[in-house]
Amino acid sequence: xxxxAPGPLGPWQWLxxxxxxxGSKATSDLNKPTDSxxxxxxxxxxAASGLALGEITVFALDYxxxxxxxxxxxxxxLASLAKIGFHLHHRLPGLMPESCLLIxxxxxxxxxxxxxxxxxxxxxxxxxxxxYLLPPIVLESGYFMPTRPFFENIxxxxxxxxxxxxxxAMGIGLSLYLICQIKAFGLSDVNLLQNLLFGSLISAxxxxxxxxxxxxxxxxxxLYMMIFGEALLNDGISVVLYNILIAFTKMHKFExxxxxxxxxxxxxxxxxxxxxxxFGIVFxxxxxxxxxxxxxxxxxxxxIVFMFSYLSYLSAETLYLSGILAxxxxxxxxxxxxxxxxxxTSYTTIKYFMKMLSSVSETLIFIFMGVSTVGKNHEWNWxxxxxxxxxxxxxxxISVFALFYVSNRFRTFPFSIxxxxxxxxxxxxxxxxxxxxxxxxxSLFPRKKMFVTATLVVIYFTVFIQGITIGxxxxxxxxxxTNKKESINxxxxxxxxxxxxxxxxxxxxxxxxxxxxxxxKKFDHKYLRKILIRKNLPRSSIVSLYKKLExxxxxxxxxxxxxxxxxxSRPHQAQQTQGTKRLSPEDVASMRDLLTHNMYxxxxxxxxxxxxSLKPRAAEKQAKEILIRRQNTLRESVRKGHSLPWGKPAGAxxxxxxxxxxxxxxxxxxxxxxxxxxxxxxxxxxxSFIMFNAHSxxxxxxERPQTQQITTRKSLNRGGKPSGxxxxxxxxxxxxxxxSKRTLRPKPLFHTVDEERGSGEESGxxxxxxxxxxxxxxxxxxxxxxxxxxxxx
Amino acid sequence: MGSGGSxxxxxxxxxxxxxxxxxxxATLLRLYHxxxxxxxxxxxxxxxxxxxxxxxLAVNPLGDRIIDSFFPDGSLRVExxxxxxxxxxxxxxxxxxxxxxxxxxxxxxxxxxxxxFAFQLYDLDRDGKISRHEMLQVLRLMVGVxxxxxxxxSITDRTVQEADEDGDGAVSFMEFSKSLxxxxxxxxxxxxxLK
Lengths: 793, 195
Hints:
The complex is a heterodimer. By secondary structure, chain A is mainly alpha-helical. Chain A has a domain at 126-364 and 376-477: Na+/H+ antiporter like fold, CATH 1.20.1530. Chain A has 25 helices and 5 strands. In chain A, a hairpin with a 2-residue loop joins strand 1 (51-53) and strand 2 (56-59). By secondary structure, chain B is mainly alpha-helical. Chain B has a two-stranded antiparallel ribbon with strand order 1-2. In chain B, helix 9 (132-142) packs across helix 10 (149-163). Residues 1-6 of chain B have low confidence and may be disordered. At the A-B interface, helix 19, helix 20, helix 23 and helix 24 of A face helix 3, helix 4, helix 5, helix 6 and helix 8 of B. Chain B: Pfam families: EF-hand_7. Chain B: Keywords: Calcium, Cell membrane, Cytoplasm, Lipoprotein, Membrane, Metal-binding, Myristate, Nucleus, Phosphoprotein, Protein transport, Repeat, Transport.
């Protein structure tokens, strides 16, 4: 708290920096020195003095007190501002991975700090990194991992990630050792262990960072999973290797390392890995179990999730097991059950908070990396750096092609060479390598600076060069012929075919190796779910569209006229053959643009994961729009008495729309047995749209206002079937008796019942359909403009 | 559920289906499992409702039409044979089509047949032509709500005009396939897992 005269940083330098760093005025504070212990000098000129009246200071400044958190916050804020700028330009995110941006920001900050000749706060040391910065990053990647494809490909993933990391680490280490033996390079004091350690830390890749870049190229699912899986397991494996090798190094005289030690090292590797996973699973189950009871206090649900994950990490670390693998396993295990248990808002909170934490951690690491880049603590050795880079590429290529050659033998759908090239090229290093290099103990590694330099070079090279060029490479490999100038015809038909293909793929469903998966699902059903999931919950795959369909948005859509009755009318029976107008090319181009921008996107089957942001809302909005429109169109055509235009004979089907005012929660719904459903009549398909009910004036059966909640319901659940509710699309006739039935949900629902009078058995079933008492006096209702699915007879 | 031999016997007419569609034994088995999984109530056939319960189809703009393509000619049931037949259109094209006997009927996954399948999504009244009205309807399905009716109509006009060669205001199948001759239909309408 001194008020001495300002140090080497005069006000002029300060102004210069302000100009240099436009927009971030706060960063000028970085000029203030950090060493509060060494020199008692605040930096900035103007703050140096205080106003003292008598003995009491009226105005004072104490920067040292807040320095560390202040600067850290400023860094994070700066990175966030940069990200905002990055995303404002809509093409940039597709060009280069966001890590590029973070590195640039880091380098900038580093340049400033270096330029103003001041020591940055010691934010990163080994403890802080391993205890605070690393867990959120790993947790986030574990949590957002799509589990089903992961487990389907788990053999290949383990084989590739595990062995690949080992092969890379050993390969690079050994090759570098051989290089070091060459006297000419001046590296002979780097011994084998150090080289191996360096190899292990440089082989930690972060390929997910590049995923965003080629997301639009429709990477197929297994490839996606390989990249994801590799990223997930890779960190853990490198850290385990790193720790083992450090332990070896600490044994000082490496001549005394015997084969026994090496064997012990291998055994330790396995134990560490497996033990970590085991811990994670246990903690995952415990936390899932606890969330079963948190209905009444949903505000602490995110807390439970995070604390248990963190606890799994720490517990594993206590026993020298792999905390990273533990937290990953915890996230994976926990996710399925927790998602079903927690409330919607908690679920959103968890997702966002996780993203935020991991984003903060990563930003800090990158900034730190930038700060170290611009500095005097480098040791440049051409040979070492050059060969490191070369060996990284070479060994990655070797490991990719060799390992995949073997694993392709066992796969039903082998990876093509193209896929393997993509995997090879996505070997982008990230923050993990840098951290491990930075935290090398100087005592054991006298040439630490050289290692750090080499690591930085590799990171910069891979992130920038590979990151930027991988997009075009993937597009080049993927698309055989791109004729840009497509006619409108082609545009339309292509999109139709894409939708058709997506639809048929959905009909085919997901295929997997049934046996193991079925067994697990049975086990899951019988035991795990009973224990871990709250009672009376709808059993469905939670992250489904319907759950998020909100009344409010539906009302908005109605108000903006998107759902007005006139929007889709005017069937244009008359062929108004307008004379063929000659359209100018600009008209055609603008028409084509209109089409391109407004056509619905094809549903993506591969789960899209973006490390830096959550799933865009556009896809959801589109899906909602489609659903609502389908309902609307259906309603419209039914009202007008047109048979729906697919040429079915009009008398074939009847539609009844029923609405069910209430329901009884019935247990064992989730068993998916047909018998358990009251709608043994399988011709029920249920729709749970409550929209418009608010407007509906004529409501015969229900007095009770529909609640705002819309849920889906699978009427008939089967083990392998995806969830969803169906829509009734058959043409209707306007005469039939409706019935109301009880639903199984605690919340009100709508049902539409389709009965096919065509075959005897159906009407038989229908006749016997359970009337668990419902009278419906279904009257016929005149449809109002907003009245949705109520048609009663 | 993985052992092929014992289960294959349960598929009715397995050999006939194999010959007709060209699926491998393993794929056919998987399709059969999928058929049975979709078949709620174990009726032995699929009804419209079963297909509607595939949630992903509900958010597909063409979901209704895709489902309808499984029910040609107003039938109400989809037997496994029909199911396999429809899906056979999406089998990736075999590389050995050159050696095929030209007198045999084209396999369902030939380019022409794939195009025919797509064509019938447009042509609901099955008159062999896509009228302007039908084109407009498809366009409406596929485009968001923010496009006005006039814009849709002019796009439809343009579409029909581009493809229509004999000037009858409708697009016949030949015209349709001609307008798509540059496109890689084989790749667009093939699903890898259906090998």
